[in-house]
Amino acid sequence: MRILMALVTGVFLAGTAMAGDNGIIRKESAQGVDETMDALQSALEGAGLTIFARVDHGAGAEGVGEDIGASQLLIFGNPKLGTQAMLDDRSAGLFLPMKVAVFEDETGKTMIAYEDPAAMLGQLGGVAEDAAYIQTMTGALGTFTDGAAQ
Protein backbone atom coordinates (compact mmCIF):
# COMPACT_ATOMS: atom_id res chain seq x y z
CA MET A 1 0.00 0.00 0.00
CA ARG A 2 2.91 2.39 0.71
CA ILE A 3 4.18 1.82 -2.80
CA LEU A 4 0.76 2.70 -4.19
CA MET A 5 0.67 5.95 -2.18
CA ALA A 6 4.19 6.82 -3.32
CA LEU A 7 3.13 6.28 -6.92
CA VAL A 8 -0.02 8.37 -6.51
CA THR A 9 1.99 11.12 -4.87
CA GLY A 10 4.65 10.93 -7.56
CA VAL A 11 2.12 11.17 -10.37
CA PHE A 12 0.39 14.09 -8.66
CA LEU A 13 3.66 15.96 -8.28
CA ALA A 14 5.11 15.06 -11.66
CA GLY A 15 6.80 18.00 -13.27
CA THR A 16 7.30 19.87 -10.02
CA ALA A 17 9.49 17.94 -7.61
CA MET A 18 9.83 14.53 -6.06
CA ALA A 19 10.25 13.48 -2.46
CA GLY A 20 13.65 12.16 -1.61
CA ASP A 21 14.27 9.07 0.47
CA ASN A 22 13.69 11.16 3.58
CA GLY A 23 10.23 12.34 2.46
CA ILE A 24 11.30 15.95 1.91
CA ILE A 25 10.08 17.54 -1.32
CA ARG A 26 12.35 20.24 -2.72
CA LYS A 27 11.80 22.59 -5.62
CA GLU A 28 13.55 25.65 -6.91
CA SER A 29 11.88 29.06 -6.96
CA ALA A 30 12.43 31.65 -9.67
CA GLN A 31 12.09 34.40 -7.03
CA GLY A 32 14.01 35.38 -3.90
CA VAL A 33 13.19 34.06 -0.45
CA ASP A 34 11.05 37.04 0.62
CA GLU A 35 9.11 37.15 -2.66
CA THR A 36 8.53 33.39 -2.65
CA MET A 37 7.38 33.38 0.95
CA ASP A 38 5.15 36.43 0.39
CA ALA A 39 3.51 34.71 -2.60
CA LEU A 40 3.02 31.49 -0.65
CA GLN A 41 1.55 33.24 2.38
CA SER A 42 -0.77 35.33 0.22
CA ALA A 43 -2.04 32.26 -1.65
CA LEU A 44 -2.63 30.31 1.56
CA GLU A 45 -4.46 33.20 3.20
CA GLY A 46 -6.50 33.70 0.03
CA ALA A 47 -7.58 30.06 0.20
CA GLY A 48 -8.74 30.51 3.79
CA LEU A 49 -5.93 28.64 5.54
CA THR A 50 -4.73 29.79 8.94
CA ILE A 51 -1.20 31.24 9.15
CA PHE A 52 0.18 30.45 12.61
CA ALA A 53 3.69 31.87 12.25
CA ARG A 54 6.36 33.04 9.87
CA VAL A 55 9.79 32.34 11.31
CA ASP A 56 12.91 34.11 10.03
CA HIS A 57 15.66 31.54 10.58
CA GLY A 58 18.20 33.74 8.80
CA ALA A 59 17.64 36.57 11.29
CA GLY A 60 17.83 34.11 14.16
CA ALA A 61 21.20 32.86 12.94
CA GLU A 62 22.46 36.43 12.59
CA GLY A 63 21.39 37.02 16.19
CA VAL A 64 23.93 34.44 17.33
CA GLY A 65 26.67 35.62 14.99
CA GLU A 66 26.12 33.06 12.21
CA ASP A 67 25.13 33.42 8.57
CA ILE A 68 22.89 30.82 6.97
CA GLY A 69 21.59 33.21 4.33
CA ALA A 70 17.95 34.05 3.83
CA SER A 71 15.82 31.32 5.37
CA GLN A 72 12.18 31.40 6.49
CA LEU A 73 9.61 28.91 7.68
CA LEU A 74 5.85 29.28 7.28
CA ILE A 75 3.59 27.37 9.68
CA PHE A 76 -0.02 27.07 8.53
CA GLY A 77 -2.97 24.77 8.50
CA ASN A 78 -6.54 23.90 7.80
CA PRO A 79 -8.30 22.57 10.92
CA LYS A 80 -10.81 20.68 8.77
CA LEU A 81 -8.01 18.51 7.37
CA GLY A 82 -5.73 18.38 10.38
CA THR A 83 -8.54 17.38 12.69
CA GLN A 84 -9.33 14.40 10.45
CA ALA A 85 -5.73 13.20 10.77
CA MET A 86 -5.81 13.66 14.55
CA LEU A 87 -9.09 11.76 14.82
CA ASP A 88 -7.33 8.85 13.13
CA ASP A 89 -4.23 9.15 15.30
CA ARG A 90 -3.79 11.82 17.98
CA SER A 91 -0.02 11.67 17.39
CA ALA A 92 -0.61 13.44 14.06
CA GLY A 93 -0.56 16.62 16.14
CA LEU A 94 3.21 16.22 16.31
CA PHE A 95 3.37 16.90 12.55
CA LEU A 96 0.62 19.47 12.25
CA PRO A 97 0.18 22.27 11.40
CA MET A 98 1.98 22.04 8.07
CA LYS A 99 5.31 23.75 7.46
CA VAL A 100 7.10 25.01 4.36
CA ALA A 101 10.68 26.26 4.41
CA VAL A 102 12.00 28.72 1.84
CA PHE A 103 15.73 29.30 1.88
CA GLU A 104 18.76 30.30 -0.13
CA ASP A 105 20.94 27.24 -0.70
CA GLU A 106 24.73 27.13 -0.79
CA THR A 107 24.75 28.07 -4.49
CA GLY A 108 22.43 31.06 -4.06
CA LYS A 109 19.30 29.37 -5.45
CA THR A 110 15.99 29.91 -3.67
CA MET A 111 14.60 26.56 -2.61
CA ILE A 112 11.23 25.49 -1.25
CA ALA A 113 11.10 22.42 0.98
CA TYR A 114 8.34 20.59 2.79
CA GLU A 115 7.62 17.14 4.11
CA ASP A 116 5.50 14.86 1.95
CA PRO A 117 2.23 14.35 3.88
CA ALA A 118 2.10 10.64 2.99
CA ALA A 119 5.63 10.10 4.33
CA MET A 120 5.02 12.32 7.35
CA LEU A 121 1.67 10.91 8.49
CA GLY A 122 2.15 7.43 7.00
CA GLN A 123 4.52 6.51 9.81
CA LEU A 124 1.65 6.73 12.29
CA GLY A 125 -0.20 3.50 12.97
CA GLY A 126 -3.69 4.99 12.97
CA VAL A 127 -3.48 6.95 9.71
CA ALA A 128 -4.57 5.08 6.61
CA GLU A 129 -2.11 5.46 3.75
CA ASP A 130 -4.95 6.18 1.34
CA ALA A 131 -6.77 8.69 3.58
CA ALA A 132 -8.48 11.37 1.51
CA TYR A 133 -7.00 14.16 3.65
CA ILE A 134 -3.46 12.99 2.80
CA GLN A 135 -4.25 13.27 -0.90
CA THR A 136 -5.79 16.71 -0.34
CA MET A 137 -2.78 17.91 1.67
CA THR A 138 -0.38 16.58 -0.96
CA GLY A 139 -2.23 18.24 -3.82
CA ALA A 140 -2.62 21.55 -2.01
CA LEU A 141 1.04 21.72 -0.98
CA GLY A 142 2.11 20.98 -4.54
CA THR A 143 -0.21 23.59 -6.02
CA PHE A 144 0.59 26.34 -3.51
CA THR A 145 4.36 25.82 -3.65
CA ASP A 146 4.37 25.57 -7.46
CA GLY A 147 2.52 28.89 -7.62
CA ALA A 148 4.91 30.55 -5.17
CA ALA A 149 7.93 29.28 -7.13
CA GLN A 150 6.99 31.09 -10.34
UniProtKB/TrEMBL annotation:
It comes from Tateyamaria omphalii. PANTHER family: INNER MEMBRANE OR EXPORTED, SLR5037 PROTEIN. Residues 55-117 form the DUF302 domain. Keywords: Signal. The lineage of its organism: Bacteria, Pseudomonadati, Pseudomonadota, Alphaproteobacteria, Rhodobacterales. The keyword Signal applies. InterPro entries: DUF302 (IPR005180), TT1751-like_sf (IPR035923). Residues 1-19 form the signal peptide. This is DUF302 domain-containing protein. It comes from the Bacteria.
